[in-house]
Amino acid sequence: MAATDTVRILLPGNRDYEIRIGSGLMDERSSWQGLPKAGAAVVVSNETVAPLFAERLRSQLLSVYPRVDLVVLPDGEQHKDWASLNRICDHLLGEAMDRRTVLFALGGGVIGDMTGFAAAIYMRGVPFVQVPTTLLAQVDSSVGGKTAINHPLGKNMLGAFYQPERVIADLDTLDSLPDRELRAGLAEVIKYGPIADAGFLCWIEDNLDALLARDKAVLGYAVRRSCEIKAEVVGQDEREQGLRAILNFGHTIGHAIEAGLGYGAWLHGEAVACGMVLAADLSQRLGLMPAGFVARLRALIERADLPVQPPKLGAERYLQLMRVDKKAEAGEIRFVLIEELGRAGLHAVPDALIAETLAAHGAA
Ligand SMILES: NC(=O)c1ccc[n+]([C@@H]2O[C@H](COP(=O)([O-])OP(=O)(O)OC[C@H]3O[C@@H](n4cnc5c(N)ncnc54)[C@H](O)[C@@H]3O)[C@@H](O)[C@H]2O)c1
Ligand SMILES: O=C(O)C(=O)C[C@@H](O)[C@H](O)[C@H](O)COP(=O)(O)O
Ligand SMILES: [Zn+2]
């Protein structure tokens, strides 16, 4: 078994938690020791992931908690909604779970975001642990405490900042992940290069084939470096008052694509990949980056077999969707743009330039 990597996220008020990354962590007793004590644990998962891992997790947790329940939700981004959130809350209340109860999010980002939100609001807050089983969740969504559900009018519009007790990223769980989901996760890995670490972008370019071939050591490094970058950013700006917005590179258009097409039509990572190409293009149009950067990022995204051509929703529809983006202020749409390789910032972009860029990419 490979060694476990631990990334620690340090937060204001002397709060911190560990992100443990490695093979076989699910079946390791120490993964589940030292968590808050409770009379019960509740594992939240979905119809796809529960049959794969829930019994293994449950049997480990039974050595720590006297009772371990399982809540199984329908699978899919279209179910990241009130109905699913209510199902978690209904179970907790129906079983009279007290405020010490520990929730375990077993699955991808959809389960992680919803379980975290349920933990944030149940009895005004119970502890929760992230057990991410997709690449996307291991490199991004399980870390940093953004929890949410979607609204038909906008992505992740209802949620809370609420940090987990620990993240257990068992690389072996990725063995069963469909290729399309692996590629979607790579979009968020690629994101970290332009916004924070030019060297990591080169490393991804050099190792993309190994990542796609699921080389465990290479995947492990991608997860660790991604978590290190995210932990560093979130540690400085937990509630997105400034710096943290850089993690939204590619998301302004990405979220518009997801909501505009209906949740689940494109995967989150696919929408972000395409959104990064357009945001890179905007960075060039505003004179921040040379054309070579746009071509380089686009080539990498294409090599990862991720989409670079946005759906044709029309400029007006895109603008309407982006006006409810969380980064928008007073109707002004703001994008995370690349300022130099490894550095990004938030920029207000005029509607006309956005429309021009969308048209240039066949989206208008
Ligand atoms: N909170 C954050 O900071 C943050 C960051 C990035 C993304 N997100 C959110 O995360 C979500 C996307 O997450 P995702 O890409 O993990 O999608 P997902 O949770 O829908 O999982 C993708 C698919 O893979 C399946 N799956 C999960 N693990 C598996 C495994 N080991 N083997 C086989 N199948 C498996 C799932 O059932 C699902 O069908 C979006 O809702 C996005 O908004 C949140
Ligand atoms: O953690 C963050 O901050 C991010 O922006 C990470 C993103 O990859 C993620 O998709 C996040 O959920 C988007 O946040 P939102 O605030 O735009 O909903
Ligand atoms: Zn994202």
TrEMBL record:
Catalysed reaction equations from the record: 7-phospho-2-dehydro-3-deoxy-D-arabino-heptonate = 3-dehydroquinate + phosphate
Class of this enzyme: lyase
Residue ranges annotated for the 3-dehydroquinate synthase C-terminal domain, each copy included: 185-328
Pathway: Metabolic intermediate biosynthesis; chorismate biosynthesis; chorismate from D-erythrose 4-phosphate and phosphoenolpyruvate: step 2/7
Occurrences of domain 3-dehydroquinate synthase N-terminal (ranges): 71-183
Main location: cytoplasm
Entry's cofactor comment: Binds 1 divalent metal cation per subunit. Can use either Co(2+) or Zn(2+).
Protein name according to UniProt: 3-dehydroquinate synthase
GO molecular-function terms, A-Z: 3-dehydroquinate synthase activity; metal ion binding; nucleotide binding
Family as reported in the entry's similarity comment: Belongs to the sugar phosphate cyclases superfamily. Dehydroquinate synthase family.
A GO cellular-component term linked to this record: cytoplasm
Localization terms from the record: Cytoplasm
Residues binding NAD(+): 75-80, 109-113, 133-134, 146, 155
GO aspect biological process, one term: aromatic amino acid family biosynthetic process
Organism expressing this protein natively: Pelomonas aquatica
Lineage: Bacteria, Pseudomonadati, Pseudomonadota, Betaproteobacteria, Burkholderiales
Co-factor requirement: Co(2+); Zn(2+); NAD(+)
Enzyme Commission number: 4.2.3.4
Entries under InterPro entries matching the protein: Dehydroquinate_synthase, DHQ_synth_AroB, DHQ_synth_fam, DHQS/DOIS_N, DHQS_C
Keywords (A to Z) from UniProt: Amino-acid biosynthesis, Aromatic amino acid biosynthesis, Cobalt, Cytoplasm, Lyase, Metal-binding, NAD, Nucleotide-binding, Zinc
Positions that bind Zn(2+): 188, 251, 268
Protein role: Catalyzes the conversion of 3-deoxy-D-arabino-heptulosonate 7-phosphate (DAHP) to dehydroquinate (DHQ).
